[in-house]
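Title: Prediction job returns without error message
Component: structure pipeline
Severity: low
Priority: P3
Assignee: unassigned

Description:
Job completed but the reporter wants confirmation the result is attached to the right record. Sequence as submitted:
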Amino acid sequence: MINLSINPEGLRHNIEKARQNRIVIPTIAQMQHPQTIPQKIKDKLKTTGLWDVDPVNLFRITWKNEATEHGGLFRDVPNYVELPSSLTGVPARIVAMAGKWFPTGCHKVGASFGCLAPKLVTGQFDATRHRAVWPSTGNYCRGGAFNSKLLAVESVAILPEKMSRERFEWLSKIAGEVIATPGCESNVKEIFDKTNELSRLDDTVIFNQFEEMGNPLWHYNVTGHALQELYTAVRRDGDRLAGACFTSGSAGTMSAGDYLKDQNPSMKLGVGEALQCPTILNNGFGGHRIEGIGDKHIPWIHNVRNTDMVIAIDDEDSQRLLRLFNTDQGREYLRSLSLSDELIERLSWLGISGIANVLCCIKMAKYYELTEHDVLVTVLTDSAAMYGSRIDELNLAHGAYTVREAELDHHVHLLGMRTDNMLELTYPERKRVHNLKYYTWVEQQGKTAAELDALWYDPAGTWDAVHRQAEELDALIDAFNRAVGIL
């Protein structure tokens, strides 16, 4: 469970700093139901840009923001894209919830809030003397640096040196310090090594998304809740929620699947990873280009016992589809499929990992022979806005794009999805994957074998207990805000 014990001195310092900077902190319930946000906050949001470094943007950590860059309030249903069969090649309905309309353009700003808020409102993190360290494979450290800036907290962002240029350029303006570790997306061990080095300093607190239980708490209660609401809104007579797929990354989003399975027990939950680094599939390793999904280890916070399938995605598929969805030639081809201009524009809401999530859904639909009455849901972690340089690299590598190449990309990299490199996880297979945590977390990162066993044998005392802590956290946030006194 998350430690919610109070450090009185740190809490007192945090309250005073929040008062000085006019900071109000949102609750999990307000992220679920933004219509309950105080009118004073909504009035301020009407004049504030989505990415503005203003504490009021903490209240835009919700899936229900209006799809606008400035002054937006909230929708009843999250922003989403439904991908038609003419594009996916499967009859099943694939509905993807969009992360583009969070501050920073990515839902990781929510996961980082889930990790920071418990330590801030208990005083375990002292904003007057601690730096917040955000180890990441891309977007999480962006969210952490942004939230730190909003809360007047010093931050350190850590991410692999081969991540997209756009990430580094943005971080240079927001984070107090940016550290590039050796390697690419799958080099998580190098990130942990740098994190462990910094942890020995007295002025640092590590917010490790791969082990912080605030990450699954947030995704279970906010992302899972939003996906269930979205399914309810789009459901037609005779439909059923057949499944959900999410690429692994820190595995925080997988806990949204835990929420969905609590509401829809018969559905299947799939976890995706890169074919070039098939750690879950067959204990494999390697480098890959699906930015934001990690690999070479199993995150501590992945509730493997509740995962039904692993699906490996070739990173070349996600790269080629990024170019299809975000070039003039690709859009010209997509119009030939009778896709609406609105849908074609919304395809830019799919970043590289979002494309991989959709491909996982397509493979699951083919594997289980799903019909037009079966709904699969997923999330679009970020959008193409973070990957313009990747499209430039593809053009340099493969030459100028053409409509004919766009057609080939659609047929080869989307319609051509097969049911290879997939595995239904039996009990022994799930236990195998769970046991891989030992080598990272017990041997390297200081966890105990007893703690590892508890994640498997005591789900009520671990996963369920964490999910239920949202109400306790909200009570602490309310008390913090009352003490600050801004409202």
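Comment from assignee: result matches the submitted record. The chain has 22 helices and eleven strands.
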